[in-house]
Amino acid sequence: MLDLTFEAPKPKVIAGAKHDWELVIGMEVHAQVASKAKLFSGASTQFGAEPNSNVAFVDAAMPGMLPVINEFCVEQAVRTGLGLKAKINLRSAFDRKNYFYPDLPQGYQISQLYHPLVGEGEVLVDMEPGIARRVRIERIHMEQDAGKSIHDMDPAMSFVDLNRTGVALMEIVSRPDIRGPEEAAAYVAKLRQILRYLGTCDGNMQNGNLRADVNVSVCRPGAYEKYMETQDFSHLGTRCEIKNMNSMRFIQAAIDYEARRQIGILEAGGEIVQETRLYDPDKGETRSMRSKEEAHDYRYFPDPDLLPLEIEQAWVDDIAANLPELPDAKKARFVTEFGLSEYDASVLTADLANAAYFEAVAAEAGDGKMAANWVINELFGRLKKDDRGIEDSPVAPGQLAALVGLIKKGDISGKIAKDVFEIVYTEGGDPAKIVEEKGLKQVTDTGAIEAAVDEVIAANPAQVEKAQANPKLAGWFVGQVMKATGGKANPKAVNEIVTAKLGL
Amino acid sequence: MSIDEKTAAHVAKLARIRVDDARLPELAQEFNTILGFIEQLSEVDVEGVEPMVSVEPMRLKRRADLVTDGNQQAKVLSNAPDAREGFFAVPKVVE
Amino acid sequence: MSELTKMTIAAARDALGKGEVTSLELTEACLTAIDGADALGAFVHKTPDLAREMAAAADARIKAGEADKLTGIPLGIKDLFCTKGVPSQAASRILEGFRPEYESTVSQKLFDAGAVMLGKLNMDEFAMGSSNETSVYGNAVNPWRVNGQDLTPGGSSGGSAAAVAADLCLGATGTDTGGSIRQPAAFTGITGLKPTYGRCSRWGIVAFASSLDQAGPMAKDVRDCAIMLEAMCGHDPKDSTSADLEVPDFEAMLTGDIRGKTIGIPREYRMDGMPAEIEALWAEGRKMLQDAGAKIVDISLPHTKYALPTYYVIAPAEASSNLARYDGVRFGHRAKLSQGDGITEMYEKTRAEGFGPEVQRRVMIGTYVLSAGFYDAYYNRARKVRTLIKRDFEDAFAQGVDAILTPATPSAAFPLGQSDDADPVAMYLNDVFTVTVNLAGLPGIAVPAGQDGQGLPLGLQLIGRPWEEGDLLNTAYALERAAGFVGKPEKWW
């Protein structure tokens, strides 16, 4: 695999009233495993069902109910670990995290504190071509999701729905390597992209299938470098955790607000209290979460209902052998194999379906660069206008490749091609046939073009005089000839003939 | 190790069991008796001993990813002290 | 009629097979005996209609020649087992009114084998106790008496023990976390087996301490235990700790021949202040097995003295977490709330009202030993000592020991109410001989082997190798035959 070379981005600096501050951000991303059934029960993970209908007695923590693990979920977590170049622990174990909350029926969440399934890995977060941040992953562990409490259906009561209870989550914990709000959003975007490539999580943030707890602290310039040198957290500021963010935009806004809040406190001589906070998108503020501030002591201990999870290296190797090509590798390959710019390669690899579409067009058309142009500029633009995804594209890769082929052969000009594209997009059909039937084929017959040029020159003697004095005006003749031929004349040929006939 | 009333009250809070203040001295005393008994364990040399994970070695059982359960809202709610409109109802929770 | 209820399961099975009696007759006899024994406090939820229905179905099966191992045999089920549509509340107020929508694997297996359910049996609340005095239903009472004084049947499976000893049912289910099958069996002159951890599925049994809990049979003799165990155990895909092993024909293994077997006598079980009668019984047991052809060897289980403190860290720790689900949200009791009470008040009041004092005590101790800063000092250390306790047994078995003989209890049944003034630790000492077996996950069986000076039954315990219940039952069978215990309590209830 080819890695593209890159430099680290500059950290975000916020100027306080007294001096400059830098941001230090770490994230815990909760990604829902794309499985049919829950982690420890056979109930469905389907979103949007009737309340308490996707619930097994295990999920409702009925007396005497016991968990049995879904092997597919383990496999997905291993895949994710491998996708993040992480160490897979052949022996991991499940622990109970004990706390009381109405949407936590067992009174504990089954998680992995002491022995996570996945150890250290990394994510390369691209900021712009040639600029990227390497964010270290500390661990990935598996755990159960909680249910949902609804607080606004009744003035005095909260309502509890356990449909989500017990759904498998992968908690991806990063080191505090993220240095600004934009990087934080880019980190989540990159993780999401990788998870979607792997197929281990659908990345649907709106439904809460991917959400992040964001740890934010601020420090004076230079302090972070000391931390990196020593891995000693005392060089960093006290952090606050903003819970449950499920929008890239809010993540950025919340971090920005939180950093400024902390700077304000510090510059006023105050101290940051380590606490859990909630972002209020309406007010654009973070606030302390009262419920989480009560003395909590999770009393983790190994879940006696489950034995340690032991997996075999051969199984891991098998999963590794079947990993798809991941975004970084694909991007690098697009640059080297098709000669694309890093920017274009990034755009095309942002989503797996887009990349696959492009590759199909490029292969058939035999010209990657041209294919990239047409996919990015024409197709994506047109789809965006209609608010459509690539899956709903009315133009199949074969059709677009045929169109690119016609341009390459010189059968049509780029301008005509755009018209043909629009026809294919709205009405369908084979581009070659459309060109044929509508008579859009480019005129390359020099005799015909010469006749047209002669006609224009004869009809516009004043223009001829001007053009001969100022050769830049020759373009006017080219335009007239193109007009006269209905755009079908080969522009290059027209240019040459006009220049020759005007004696320029 | 000795448990005072404050610790006893904190433990009761963590366990979500209401204990009247008047009973705290007695409770602390009971805890101390039991902890005194448990304290014997500190005599044992456990250097290099692995904590027990499971009494008999066994491979963790696994399920296939199939939907085999659920779709039983009525049964899930049938024992609830307060169920409304398909939900469990509890006193308002403030986040 | 009452003679019918005195039958062993094996005898009833044969009589049913020969058509000498019907399951309905047997069941009616039990129901009558149960109705006449309310003073024992054994049956806390009677299910006569269900029993008759199941008995009728059993009779039809027998008639059709489709009888299974337990077809038509009336049993009692400990209240810790969730039984579909039948109150199942672990003798706790917090599960008031709870009727499970599911059947525990063990009770389902018994019913699949044809057994008839008579009702639910009393126990200590959440199986926490050794005298059956912590039950929300009130005490279960031992059918054995001295001078008209009510005695404990032991606990936590006190109702099961009393019911079997008083011939209210032919057999009963029990569960054993620290001795809850074997101690009450010994106190009531019946036989009780705790299988190897993982033999019986825990699915559908209200959890006390998950790494220690194990269901087992309580019956009138060793053979009946073998018959019941075979029906109760077996692999359950719904329990991750259930063993995927073949279930042998335990009854067929009862030959009584133990020649050449090696029986270990652990010196650490000779406790200071042990009553002479217990000491004498133990010596007699040793002789009986020797006479039957076994080789007796003295062994050492050096960490025995740390078993109780280890247990009283691990069991409460697991219980504190297992019992967190009793929160008044989805089932069972919810406290009446005052104006302005929020979710925290609901939890605290519900759990204060719903749990009795012993359960509260253990939940809080468990909470404490798991809390920040103490985990390593208590819980993790206890897990390490547990490893050492298990290693003691492994060493003994590695030396060729087939089974270990110990007293089952440090005393005969004691009067009810005695524990009221005792400190909790004094009560915990009841489990001193049984609790090591749970910590090591081994099978153990209590066999009645004699009576004390007051005529109360005393039991001996045999501890076997993991998964070798068949062999253990056979040794117990030899002991039973040699001891020839036939005592029955005189009916006073």
From TrEMBL, chain A:
Family matches, as InterPro entries: Asn/Gln-tRNA_amidoTrfase_suB/E, Asn/Gln-tRNA_Trfase_suB/E_cat, Asn/Gln_amidotransferase, Asn/Gln_tRNA_amidoTrase-B-like, GatB, GatB_C_1, GatB_Yqey_C_2, Gln-tRNA_amidoTrfase_suB_CS
One Pfam match: GatB_Yqey
Protein name: Aspartyl/glutamyl-tRNA(Asn/Gln) amidotransferase subunit B
Keyword check for Nucleotide-binding: yes
The species this protein was found in: Roseivivax lentus
Gene that encodes the chain: gatB
Record keywords, A-Z: ATP-binding, Ligase, Nucleotide-binding, Protein biosynthesis, Transferase
GO biological process terms, semicolon-separated: glutaminyl-tRNAGln biosynthesis via transamidation; translation
Tree of life domain: Bacteria
TrEMBL record, chain B:
Keyword Chloroplast: no
Enzyme Commission number, as recorded: 6.3.5.-
Gene3D superfamilies referenced in this protein's UniProt entry, alphabetically: Glu-tRNAGln amidotransferase C subunit, N-terminal domain
PANTHER family: GLUTAMYL-TRNA(GLN) AMIDOTRANSFERASE SUBUNIT C, MITOCHONDRIAL
Family: Belongs to the GatC family.
Function of the protein: Allows the formation of correctly charged Asn-tRNA(Asn) or Gln-tRNA(Gln) through the transamidation of misacylated Asp-tRNA(Asn) or Glu-tRNA(Gln) in organisms which lack either or both of asparaginyl-tRNA or glutaminyl-tRNA synthetases. The reaction takes place in the presence of glutamine and ATP through an activated phospho-Asp-tRNA(Asn) or phospho-Glu-tRNA(Gln).
Name of this protein: Aspartyl/glutamyl-tRNA(Asn/Gln) amidotransferase subunit C
UniProt organism field: Roseivivax lentus
From TrEMBL, chain C:
Keywords carried by this UniProt record: ATP-binding, Ligase, Nucleotide-binding, Protein biosynthesis, Transferase
Catalytic activity: L-glutamyl-tRNA(Gln) + L-glutamine + ATP + H2O = L-glutaminyl-tRNA(Gln) + L-glutamate + ADP + phosphate + H(+)
GO MF annotation list: ATP binding; glutaminyl-tRNA synthase (glutamine-hydrolyzing) activity; transferase activity
GO BP of this protein: translation
Record keyword Nucleotide-binding present: yes
InterPro entries: Amidase, Amidase_CS, Amidase_dom, AS_sf, GatA
EC number, as in UniProt: 6.3.5.7
Catalytic residue list: 78 (charge relay system), 156 (charge relay system), 180 (acyl-ester intermediate)
GO cellular component, one term: glutamyl-tRNA(Gln) amidotransferase complex
Description of how the protein assembles with itself and partners: Heterotrimer of A, B and C subunits.
HAMAP family registered for this protein in UniProt: GatA (MF_00120)
Function: Allows the formation of correctly charged Gln-tRNA(Gln) through the transamidation of misacylated Glu-tRNA(Gln) in organisms which lack glutaminyl-tRNA synthetase. The reaction takes place in the presence of glutamine and ATP through an activated gamma-phospho-Glu-tRNA(Gln).
PANTHER family xrefs: GLUTAMYL-TRNA(GLN) AMIDOTRANSFERASE SUBUNIT A, TRANSAMIDASE
NCBIfam families tied to this protein: gatA
Family named by the database record: Belongs to the amidase family. GatA subfamily.
Protein name: Glutamyl-tRNA(Gln) amidotransferase subunit A
Taxonomic source organism: Roseivivax lentus
Gene behind the chain: gatA
